[in-house]
Each structure stands twice: as C-alpha cells, then as structure tokens.
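Anyone able to model this chain together with 2'-O-acetyl adenosine-5-diphosphoribose?
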Amino acid sequence: MKKKIVVFTGAGVSAESGIKTFRDSGGLWEEYDVRDVATPEAWAKNPGLVLRFYNERRNQVIDAKPNAAHHAIASLQKKFDVHVVTQNIDDLHERAGSKNVLHLHGEILKARSSVDPALIYPMKNREIKIGDKCEKGSQLRPHIVWFGEAVPNYELGINICHEAELLIIIGTSLNVYPAAGIVHYAKPEVRKFLIDPQDIPHGSIENLTSIKEKAGTGMQQLAERILSGEIVL
Ligand code: OAD
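re: yes, here you go
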C-alpha cells in the first residue's frame, strides 16, 4: 500500500500564480476590512459589496494557472497516497492534477443557497449577482466559510492529518483557527516540513524542518528528495 503524505496549504502556495495572500504586506486584508467582506454581518449589511469582493477573487482565480508548487505536490502521487488539505478557495491544486483535495474554507467556483447550506452549485458564470437565486428562491452567496462561521470540513481535516506518514505545510501564517489547528493532529513521530519564506511561529510542532523558500522552489526540491527516496517515510 502507498504511504500517505498530507500537504496542508495556505495562500502562499498560490502566491506565485499571482493570487494575493491575506496578511503579507500588500495582502488582501490590508486593502479590505475583513469585517466588511468576509463575515455573515457583512452579508446582511451589504451583500452587493460582498459579492463584488468574491467576484473579483473568482475572476483572478479563473485567469490564474497552477504554479510549480501545485505541480510538485501532484507529482508525489506517482509513488504516494497524497491528500491536500487546503485553506485556499481556488482550484489550482485540482487543475495541477491533485486527486484528493479537501477545502476547509470553501470553493470560489461554487455558489450556494443562503437558506440551505446543502444546496451548492458549480458556477457557470464568473459572477454571482444580486437577484441570482437558489431553487428555494433565496439569494445565492459564495460557497465560502466566513469568519464567525463553522468549518464543516474540520473533523475530516483532522482525521486526514492524523493518518499522515509525512506532513508538508506550505504558505500559511497558521493564524486562522480552527483550520490552523489541524496540523497539530499529525502524530509527533511523523516527519514534517514547513515551506514559507518567512519564519512562522508554529507553537510546538514536533519533528519539524523549516524550509525558508518560496513554495515553487521549496516544494520542487522537497518533492525530488521524497521521490528519489532520500527522505524516507
Ligand atoms: P496568510 O496571508 O495569513 O499567510 C500567507 C503565508 O504565505 C505567509 O506566511 C507568507 O509568508 C507566505 N507566502 C507568501 N508568499 C509565498 C510564496 N511565494 N511561497 C510560499 N509562501 C509564501 O494566508 P493563510 O495562512 O492561507 O480565510 O490565511 C488563512 C486564512 O485567512 C485564509 O484561508 C482566509 C484568510 O482570512 C478566510 O477567508 C476564511
């Protein structure tokens, strides 16, 4: 049976595809107040602004391409059972060929009902507009987990991480909980790598090697070391 590699990703893995991160200088939360665009209160107060913010994100994602990091992660599937657990709402892991991708914070290319969270629709258009309705007649919203909302895939993410035989963390400030807490469910004896150009305070993750590189270079090099057998699981 193939050994299991879990890759936990954040906005930094898509940065080299031209998608903005959140907390870096020049990041999205410098340009926007999170309370105005990414909370249930914002949706209640000004749905037009919320839709505009996510329509912009969706347009960027559609026009972006997977980068070397997304491809290197997918290449590990040649020899390993790879599971990507991502905080990202883009589909760049899928477009690079990753088969098992769990989205913790939703998916920008889907819309959902604002009255029934089970009604989720793949999007045909680039934009959700005021007046676009679900089959129950309620306004469509982006299929995104907002601040203050539960993370429906959290338990699944924990279970996947707990079964990892190698864990790779890429491009996340590990600031947003509960998602960031998932990495702490990997077994202590399992080898872990963290790829990020910045020093990331990670609390007490055992057996962790930091690779201070951008995702593309860092992940390509790490994938080579894993696939060549230099790093043994
Ligand atoms: P952040 O913006 O908090 O962190 C991005 C991380 O990527 C930082 O640690 C950067 O150093 C790193 N980074 C930047 N460029 C990079 C590159 N080229 N290669 C590798 N790393 C790079 O993003 P997240 O941790 O993903 O949630 O943020 C978590 C959540 O906060 C998001 O899912 C989103 C946001 O608010 C919601 O909207 C619910």
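The chain has two domains: 1-18+66-105+151-233, 20-63+108-144.
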